[in-house]
Amino acid sequence: MRELYGFEIEPEVRKWLDDLSDSDFKRVDEVAGLLAEKGTELGRALVGSTYERQV
User: How many other CB atoms sit within 10 Å of the CB of residue 20?
Assistant: First the structure.
């Protein structure tokens, strides 16, 4: 099994996550899991759009 990619969650994003509905949080969790598993294999559409994005 290969190592998962890691990423940091800024305080503003943590607050945003805390305020999501259960169903929205579940979807974000699924996509974050995919990002952690696949990382750069996903290509620029997902990886590039999340790099240094500010809320």
Answer: 13
The closest alpha carbon to 46, from 3, 55, 12, 37, belongs to 37
Residue 15's CB is within 10 A of a number of other CB atoms, namely 10
* Tokens 């969790």 belong to residue: 29
What 3 state SS string does 16-40 have? Answer: HHHHCCHHHHHHHHHHHHHHHHHHH
Global confidence as pTM: 0.67
The Cα 37–Cα 34 span in angstroms is 5
Can you give the pLDDT at residue 20?
A: 96
